[in-house]
Amino acid sequence: MVLDHYNPPFHTHKKPKNLSLKNASTIRIYMLKFSKVFLVIIFQLVIIHYIYQSPSKPSSSSSIHQDTTQQILGPKSNDRCKHGTVYVYNLPAKFNQDLLDHCANLDPWHSRCKAVTNHGLGPMAAGLSNVVPENLSPAWYWTDMFAGEVLYHSRMLRHACRTTESETATAFYIPFYAGLAVGRYLFTNYSAQDRDASCAELLHWVSDQPPWRRSRGADHFIMLGRMTWDFRRSRDADWGSGFIYMPQMKHVLRLGVERDPWDPLEVSVPYPTGFHPRSDWELVQWMEYVRTVNRTNRFTFVGGKRQMKGDFRTILQEHCRDESGSCRVVDCSGTRCYDGTSEILEAFLASDFCLQPRGDAHTRRSTFDCMLAGSIPVFFWKRSIHNQYEWFLGDEPGRFSIFIDRRAVRNGTTSIRTVLESFSRDEVRRKREKLISLMPKFVYTSGQDGTAKDAFDFAIDGVLRRLHKRG
Ligand SMILES: *[C@@H]1O[C@H](CO)[C@@H](O)[C@H](O)[C@H]1NC(C)=O
Ligand SMILES: *[C@@H]1O[C@H](CO)[C@@H](O)[C@H](O)[C@H]1NC(C)=O
Ligand SMILES: *[C@@H]1O[C@H](CO)[C@@H](O)[C@H](O)[C@H]1NC(C)=O
């Protein structure tokens, strides 16, 4: 974007310097003869030198970026590990690595190999160069919404507060890819035993480890890449695995993309989105881009209809089509919106608001895609945002989102367009600024050294704070 501005040609002040060294004697003659003219030239050279001095050196140029990023992201804290360290179990490969090695068989219909590639970031995104600033397009991936457990494991192994000494650790991380292990058994005709087998085996293994025996798992944590409901089967005939209800799980802290709001041992963490900045400067550039991008639609609805009677998403899609002057539809019926289309990002970037009905669960990855694009989410279920993501988004969702009563939409007494158009430019700007200020906390960076804390770091800080208090 503005990078070129900071990188004027290198030679601007070097050439004159050379001249004055090599041709010193000639210059002295000129100086006597044309002293006035020369003084003017010198003066100009000094000015040029002064203007270009700092930006023309790469190191100072990045220090300008540093100043800007520091202003926006805050100073780097040096309080790392003040709440202790994390021990990462080295699990038998069948609980993690083998699942990646057999990624083609993780789900009954598709290969999951792309989803788990690049340490969970997924394949690099192509086709975004017209949608995002060109120098940021390499920071985009087609990240799978359920790849968090791979991403967290990879990041945890590189975390500054990881320890290999289990005697001194505050927290114990179990890098079991429960969502991947269970995913293939969720949908088709598998038995409850099939859906529980690897979870039971894992707990059998871990509960035999000395750190576990000391605390009965109370200082242990795990990251679940899928919603908690996929692990809460209480009767054989119901959905999901029974992992969380297994007795050994009773004290284990769980991070996951949607928590059970009534379970104090669960913490929800942001769904991974496609943007993984490689530096603080890239993140800051993106924040500035969504602040200034030209939004031509009041709102957008990205989603698919379902063939159910009274399906709320169908109502929203139809409303959006009826109000095509201010709403933009991206129809995701069928499999059209599987990772790999730029149309969604484009729609969010072009809209002030985005409609976020519940999906199969109350929360959606789409909410984070929307917020990342600086578009204000409109919720219809309180449970889509209340008591979720508080470590990252705070506990006042009204500051960055809108709530509309779905019953009033259904019975026709409320028009979404009318509600959204009643917000002034200033109110929209305030909510968007709030979203932008939260971005560093809900984005997952690529995890390079030296970047500011991201969603993953805030999650681990939170775990350590909590387990430190306990100890
Ligand atoms: C599902 O599995 C059960 C028991 O294995 C079997 O009786 C039933 O016919 C299967 N149903 C389908 C639709 O395959
Ligand atoms: C924003 O979009 C509108 C409508 O497409 C266009 O008329 C306007 O010139 C654009 N403004 C900028 C700054 O690009
Ligand atoms: C429509 O729904 C809203 C919200 O539940 C309710 O307050 C209102 O009375 C309803 N109006 C009619 C005409 O049913």
Automatic annotation (TrEMBL):
Which GO cellular component terms are attached?
Golgi membrane
For membrane topology, the record states:
Single-pass type II membrane protein
Which of UniProt's keywords are assigned here?
Answer: Glycosyltransferase, Golgi apparatus, Membrane, Signal-anchor, Transferase, Transmembrane, Transmembrane helix
For this protein, the record's InterPro entries field holds: Exostosin, Exostosin_GT47
Q: Which domain of life is it from?
A: Eukaryota
Query: Where mainly located?
Result: Golgi
Disordered: annotated span:
56-77
The places in or outside the cell where this protein is found are: Golgi apparatus membrane
Q: Where is the Exostosin GT47 domain?
A: 81-414
Q: Name one GO molecular function term.
A: glycosyltransferase activity
Residues spanning the membrane: 30-52
Q: Which family does it belong to?
A: Belongs to the glycosyltransferase 47 family.
Cross-referenced PANTHER family, in alphabetical order?
Answer: EXOSTOSIN HEPARAN SULFATE GLYCOSYLTRANSFERASE -RELATED, XYLOGLUCAN GALACTOSYLTRANSFERASE XLT2-LIKE
Its name, as the record gives it, is Xyloglucan galactosyltransferase XLT2-like
Origin organism is: Salvia divinorum (Maria pastora)
Q: What is the lineage of its organism?
A: Eukaryota, Viridiplantae, Streptophyta, Embryophyta, Tracheophyta
